[in-house]
Amino acid sequence: MPKILLAEDEEVLRMLVVDTLEDEGYSIDEASDGEEAYNLIKQNTYDLILLDYMMPVYTGLELIEMIREDQNSTKIMMLSAKSQSSDQQKVLDAGANYFMSKPFSPIQLVERIEEILGESE
């Protein structure tokens, strides 16, 4: 069973994504801020990390840089309402593998995750 970390400070969105992904059979850890996410990343191995761009303590962008400094090659997808091409490029340049603009439907997210994790197999 693929293991995913979701770091999202908006509780309602986090609950929706967790419920959707658990219904699809994924094992999900969740964090409500960047520090909590980083601590989980140091303690666990994930197949995919989903990061919100704008979070307390560490932003998604700062987290990507910290993860990559640790030589962690886990796939990372940024979820963000900051969807201008310059923001997307900044995220990809920092080391994210994928970018998904908010708002998104749960079905879109599941399809994208299936594509990403399918590439790993």
Secondary structure layout plus pairing:
Layout: E1 3-7, H1 11-23, E2 27-31, H2 34-43, E3 48-52, H3 60-69, E4 75-80, H4 85-94, E5 98-101, H5 106-120
Parallel strand pairs: 1-2, 1-3, 3-4, 4-5
Provide tags for this entry.
121 residues; alpha/beta; Rossmann fold; 5-stranded parallel beta sheet; 5 helices; 21% strand; globular
Poorly predicted residue ranges: none
Number of spatially distinct domains:
1
Q: Give the H and E element order.
A: EHEHEHEHEH
- For the record, the CATH architecture stands as 3-Layer(aba) Sandwich
Number of strands: 5
CATH C-level category? Alpha Beta
Mean of residue pLDDT values: 93
Provide the CATH topology. Rossmann fold
Strand order of the largest sheet: 2-1-3-4-5
User: What structural class do helix, strand and pairing data support?
Assistant: alpha/beta
Amount of beta strand = 15-25%
> Considering the protein shown, what is the CATH homologous superfamily?
Response regulator
- Helical run tally: 5
Our Rg estimate from Cα atoms comes to 13 Å
Largest sheet: 5 strands, parallel
How widely separated are the two ends?
12 Å
Domain Response regulatory: 3-117
Pfam family, one: Response_reg
GO molecular function: DNA binding
Modified residues (4-aspartylphosphate): 52
What does this structure look like?
The protein is α/β, with parallel strands linked by helices and 121 residues long. The chain has one domain: Response regulator (Rossmann fold). 48% of the residues lie in helices and 21% in strands. The chain is built from 5 helices and 5 strands. It has a 5-stranded parallel beta sheet, sandwiched between helices. Strand 1 (3-7), helix 1 (11-23) and strand 2 (27-31) form a beta-alpha-beta unit. Helix 1 packs across helix 5. The longest helix has 15 residues, at 106-120. It is globular, with a radius of gyration of 13 Å. The mean pLDDT is 93. The modification 4-aspartylphosphate is found at residue 52. One of its GO terms (biological process) is phosphorelay signal transduction system. Residues 3-117 form the Response regulatory domain.
